[in-house]
């Protein structure tokens, strides 16, 4: 009987210890709502290569950006890992900020690049939204298959 009583006491003690560690519903809602706005912010970057990338000739890449909060500015940045792979066209700005129009749409961006090496090269694109407590950044690497001439691959 003493053993049974001891087991019962241990289970009751574990029950109360476990209940004490669970936050109340109001605390859980406060935690959820405090980070809700920033955690739900996403940036989507869609791209399209508009012409066939040829060695030492200009290629145009079109970017479309979307966010859950079009009232925020997006800070856009383009970069390459090696200048031997890709160079930018004349007067191509590689970092700037974008604002959405009245309909909440960010303007399409076109990047002019000049591939300097045959094969697959990569262009890195980063978009950042700034908030009071933290920043949200999305970075993609765009693969670009470069041919030696226009008749190489069709």
Give a nutshell description of this structure.
By secondary structure, the protein is of the alpha+beta class.
Coarse shape: elongated
Radius of gyration: 27 Å
Uncertain segments are: none
The number of helical runs is 2
Tell me what the structure shows:
Helix content is 22%, strand content 40%. The protein is of the alpha+beta class and 154 residues long. The protein has a domain at 41-146: Immunoglobulins (Immunoglobulin-like, Sandwich). The longest helix has 19 residues, at 2-20. The protein is elongated.
Which features does this protein show?
154 residues; alpha+beta; 22% helix; 4-stranded antiparallel β-sheet; Immunoglobulin-like; 2 helices; single chain; elongated
Which helices and strands, and how do they pair?
Elements: H1 2-20, H2 25-39, E1 43-49, E2 59-67, E3 74-80, E4 86-88, E5 95-98, E6 109-115, E7 119-130, E8 135-146
Antiparallel strand pairs: 1-2, 2-6, 3-5, 3-7, 4-6, 7-8
